[in-house]
What does this fold into?
Amino acid sequence: MDNKIENKFSWKIKELKPSATLLINKKVAEMKAAGEEIINLSVGEPDFGTPDFIKDSAIKAINEGFTRYTDSSGIRELREAICKKFFHDNNLVYTPEQVVVSNGAKHSLFNIFLAICDEGDEVIIPRPYWVSYPEMVKITGGKPVLCRFDDKYRFDIEHFKSLVNKNTKAVILNSPSNPSGMVYSEEELKKIGEIVLKNQILCISDEVYEYFIYGGNRHISIASLGEELKNLTIVVNGVSKTFSMTGWRIGYLAAPLPLAKIISDIQSQTTSNPSSVSQKAALAAIFSNPSGIAPIIREFETRRNFIVENLDKSIKFIKPEGAFYLLLKVENLNSLQLSKKLLEEEKIATVPGNDFGIEGFVRISFAVKMETLKEAIARINKLAKKYDEKS
It folds into this structure.
C-alpha cells in the first residue's frame, strides 16, 4: 500500500510555487530574529498606518455587536458605496448586485479564475506580472500564457494579438503594474480593447494601485472605454494599498451580473463572507475624501524620484509611473544572484525578477521611510560598483 501523503495531492498543486514575496518576508523575519539587521524592500505593503477614523469605525462595529455573518457578497451599504466610488473615480456605472466584496483583492482574483477556467482554458498574462497570477490560473485548472514585453518593457500588444486563439478565455491587465510601475495609456487600452472585443474574450483589470500615479500620468479603467467592452470586463480593486489596510483583507470586484452572481455563489460555499468588522472599516475608508491620501501619494512620488536620481549610473532600471515598486538590474548578475548578494552582502531583501517573468532584474519596494531608503540605495550602489569593477 502506498502510504506517502504526497501521492494523495491533487495534480493541480504538485507544481504550485509558494508566493515569492511572502517567502522572502518570512526569511527576513527569521534573520531579524537571529539578530541581523535587514532592510526589507521585498514586501508590497505601505509603511503608513491605517488611519484612525477607519480603526475607530471597526471598534464601533465590534462594540455594537456587528460580528455575525453578512451577505456572502458583502453588506449592501458597502457595495452601494463601492458603486459610488466607481462612478465618481472611474466613470463606471454598476449596481450593488454586480459587486462582490471578498477577503482581499487576491481572493477576488481567485474567485474570478475559479468561475471562468475549465481545463485547458488559456489566460493571457503580460510580462512582467505579479507572481500570483500564473499560480492562481493553474490552481483553478487553466493554463497561463505569458505575453512578452517590448523594448520599452511595456505590454507587447502585437504579441498579445498573436496569442489569442479558440482556447483563450481572458487577458489580465494590471495598471499601475506590480512589479514595473507601468501605467497603461488610453491609446494602449483602446488597442487592447479592440482585440478583446474582436475575439469576445474576458478582460480582468486589476486596479488595486489606481491612486498611486506619478509624473502627470493618469489611471484609466479599460471598462470605461465603452459599454460593450465593460460587459466583457471584470474590474478588481480593494482598500489594502490605498488606505494601508493590508491585514484587514477587503477587496472587491465589479462584473457583468451573471458572472457576479456566480462568484457570489462560489464565495457563499467557501468563505461565506468577508469579515464583518473589516467591511465596516472598508465602508469608512471608501466614504472618505480621496484627497486625504494626497500627501501619502506625494511622499511616494518623492521616494520614487529620489531612487531614480540617485541610483548608480551602472544600474539599469525601469522608471515606475505608478505603484511603489522599481525593477533594477546590475550587469553580470542574474536575478537570483543579485537578490542573494544583496541579502547576504548588503543585508537588503529584494524579490528576484524571474518570479515576475523578467530575468536579470530584482524588484524593490519603496514603501519604507526615506531615511531607510537612502541607506538602502547607498548599499545597492556599493554592490553595483563592486560588480561593475569586476566586469
